[in-house]
Amino acid sequence: MRTIGQHRDDVAALVAPVLAGLGAEPRATDELAVDGGAGHGHRLLAAAVTSPVPLPPFDNSQMDGFAVRVAETGQDLRVVAPIPAGVVPAPLSAGTAAPIMTGARIPDGADAVFPVEATAPGAFPAALDLAHVTVPADLVPGTFVRATGSDLPLGASIAPTGAPITPALLGALASAGVSTVQVRRPPRVLVVSTGSELQGADADAATIGDANGIALRAALAEVGVASRTVRVPDDVDAFVAALDGAVGEWADLVLTTGGISAGAYEVVRQALEPRGLVVTSVAMQPGGPQALGTVVLGGRAVPVLSFPGNPVSALVSFEVFLRPLLAPLVGLPADRPVQVLPAAAAASSPPGKHQVRRGQVVDGRVHFVGGPSSHLLAHYAAATHLVHVPVGVDTVEPGDALTVWSLR
Fold first, then answer.
1. pLDDT of 255 above 80
2. Bridge-partner residues for 403, per DSSP?
3. Which superfamily does CATH assign the domain made up of 29-54+150-184 to?
């Protein structure tokens, strides 16, 4: 029986060429429309972006007030037509002050703004009725003026290669008039759910929902990975035909669930072991049966990673073996937040295996949620943490220190 560390190393070696290729291949980029970029926080820039204009692109007012000349401080000036945002104003003549709104362009000739609160009405629109205003004596050039390029000069970097697509970055790109950017293409994983009991596999059989396919696609989406699902019955010929058709040129990695244990209808093992899939056992509960290898599917060699079929086993396997490799691709930490906390209650564990229990942290103590069985998916859904009981421990007593990973 292999250790978790040994299997993690082999999984990393299996997918390393795929992950390296995503940063090198010309085809490994997508074009992202800035105005449609909402929800793409897991995408990273494939190339640096520089500003085609200075930001702001023109001197504009920092507040609602009056555009004036500093040389005329302390003087009584005639009020001229107001300047709303979005227009190019006429030059400001000597001896005049122009009401100006926040964000509006500073007229030529003006070099400062004083706030409308410095007038008797104290606010617009009432202050628009003023015939004259007195310029405060303490004004200096640039007062309440957002200078051209004060956020970014022309040609300056908006974001470097590898920067994540954040709301602020999308806003900065839009401000600069950048309409599209090149982003790194995410890994593409074909998720294969096996079992004639799955809904849609055999309408005449007792069926269950495809928990693994749905859950793993959601887990992949959390780390920015594109995925598709194919469901196949426990039939070797149908399984191979389905994979050959689904892999195509699309999939970077095939992730299967189920079909690798010691039963009579272990379709993944029966179909792919002769093609190079290595089935092994890892000292972990749940998630003991594992398999991996490079297999020719659809006419090309594709890395295949196989998890057990029980849904908790599949999700725990993803957290332990695959998520740490994928998360850094979108700027997320490889590891979940980790704490070492005391157990709130006793529990047992097989001493020869690393047990991964589900739990919640309440008042600084670890409370187990449900038992260790790998079918207890509802208990997994209620958990906020994965709780690790290491190899060699057969009993956990209240107060014993346990390592926990925060899931949310």
1. yes
2. 340, 388
3. Molybdopterin biosynthesis moea protein, domain 2 (3.90.105.10)
